[in-house]
Amino acid sequence: MSRIGKMPIKVPSGVTVNIRGQNVTVKGPKGELSRSLPAEMLVKLEGAVLTVSRPSDDQKHRAYHGLTRSLLANMVDGVSKGFEKTLEIVGVGFRAEKSGESLMLRMGFSHTVEVKPLPGITLNVEGNNRIKVSGINREDVGQMAAQIKAVRPPDAYKGKGIRYAGEIVHLKPGKAGKVVGK
Q1: In the predicted model, is pLDDT for residue 177 greater than 90?
Q2: What pTM was estimated for this model as a whole?
């Protein structure tokens, strides 16, 4: 049995779950998400608890079991609490500013880079060097954060660029140089 798949999902108050065949819709205070789940998985709502079960121990069913449970748990968490990722900009002269809904990044290029948010995603800038990506869909929040980081990933030698908050960038040693005093 899948350790993740057999865990029940507690539905908080204020969140409603509708199951129509394989289509699941979750509504909450932050918004609404819907998804079509694999046809083999059996999703049941009993009171305020969602459970996912599989019909057999085939490899395909075992793979879908944990995935389906994780997707449902992320939907419930998203409409109740939401998701957020924080990015940090490291480097002299590198900065971000908000222009309407989009984000303007000055990353040492000859031009500013404009990043437009995906639908349902909000971008906020704290100071000049912290970007907060938030939304109710966990996949979209992660995708948007990855797109912003891809503008200027951290440099391997000096560590300058955009990184996730708390990310550790291992720096390579530079040239050894000449030995002084010979």
Answers
A1: no
A2: 0.88
